[in-house]
Amino acid sequence: MGMTAFILAGSIHEFSHAISAYRLGDTTARDSGRLTLNPLVHMDIFGSVLFPLVGAISGFPIIGWMKPVPVNPLHFRKPSRGQAVTALAGPFSNLLQAAFVLIILKLLIMFLPLELLGTSPVITLIIKFLSTYFSINILLMVFNLLPVPPLDGGWILRHVLPGRMQEQFDRIYPFGTIFLLLLVFTGGLQILLGPFLAFIHIIIGLLFTMNIVFVCLPFVVLAGITAYFFRQDLKLTLHRLRHSRKFADKGVIRVAPGAAAKKRRALVLKQGGMLLKKLRQGERLDARDEIALFDIKNSRKRNAIICTDNEFDIGNSRCQKCDGLANCFYTFLEQAKNGAYENT
Asked: Within 13 Å and on the Cβ side, how many CA atoms surround 297?
């Protein structure tokens, strides 16, 4: 049960690193296939399975880890700050998961009879798993926030340090793993995590008397912070949901000649010209620009001929092989966008 909880919490932890880096402009994690919630992608056969099993069977301290997400700080606008935010996303996701699990535990305690809580083996197993999941998320958060490289807290500490001290910090980076192993095998890690284990037991015990509003409040605050960080992505998602029926792909339809077709063509050229100007100036597309690009894509689906050549002529703003302006223009914009992001 503990291993299952650790793998699930660790997978979301690593996914948070990946999506945070992608949101800040680094596509390394996405290109490596790590932008997913699939635990099999994030698991390390030694750190996620073998070492925890050996520790549990032999009685030695249990050591476990997931595969680290590859991140290239040079792709961020501000490398040090981007690295720190990406590192903070993992522990923050563990805190968010712990707050969400508390709500589920509180709802089970509120709506299930006390007799069923103590006698039903299924309900007992669910509550035990949720309690374990809550504990592991809190411990993962605290452990990863330790200011020791290569943990997330080490990258956060590096960002806070002045420039010269950052260079000295980079020199001791290779010895961070040795220090962590000494903490584990000498019992120092148990001493550090002891107060937080007591805090976990107190919180779970208070669930029986705590008001549901106070239980939900931390999750609402953390979810609000998450929504603010991904506000542009949420705007784009809502825009796509709002126009999903309107722009449904019902097959390829040729552009009808006339004033309506010319008006749509002019709108596509105007939107695309603005996007091209931004990309050539080295700027990144914001939420409104992504919505405009999405509209060009949808106009391609509704009104344009599908062309497989994609030989785009910037001079007359149309394909040399066909009249499928929107289709080739969208492809050209996507290529310009990817090229601009890679060269940033």
From this structure: 13
Contact 157, 165 (CB under 8 A): no
Please answer whether residues 9 and 71 qualify as being in contact, where contact means their C-beta atoms are separated by less than 8 angstroms.
no
Instruction: Tell me if 37 sits within 8 A of 53, measured CB to CB.
Output: no
Residue with the two structure tokens 């948070």? 16
Angle, CA of 156, 151 and 192, to the nearest 5°: 100
Structure token digits, residue 62: 């249990």
Mapped onto helix, strand or coil, the DSSP state of residue 73 is helix
CA distances from 39 to 43, 77, 188 (A): 6, 30, 30
Over residues 152-178, the pLDDT tens digits come to 998 898 888 887 788 888 888 778 888
- The per-residue pLDDT for range 106-157, each reduced to its tens digit, is 998 888 877 777 677 888 899 999 999 999 999 999 999 998 888 899 889 8
Cβ atoms within 10 Å, residue 89: 24
Q: Is the Cβ–Cβ distance between 152 and 144 less than 8 Å? A: yes
Look up residue 332 and give its amino acid. Answer: F
Q: What's the CA gap between 20 and 27, in Å, rounded? A: 10
At 258, the amino acid letter reads G
**Residues annotated as catalytic (active site), given as ranges:** 14
Contact 328, 319 (CB under 8 A): yes
Q: Which helix (H) or strand (E) holds 313?
A: strand 312-313
CA angle at 75 for the pair 70 and 77, rounded to the nearest 5°: 135
- Region of residue 91 (phi > 0: left; psi between -120 and 50: alpha; otherwise: beta): alpha
Q: Locate all alpha helices (DSSP H) within the chain, ordered by sequence.
A: 2-23, 28-31, 39-42, 51-58, 79-111, 114-119, 121-144, 152-160, 163-172, 176-186, 188-206, 212-229, 231-242, 259-280, 287-303, 325-342
The full set of domain ranges for the chain reads 2-229, 238-342
> HSE of 121 in the Cβ direction (CA atoms, 13 Å)?
0
Token pair for residue 63? 């050591």
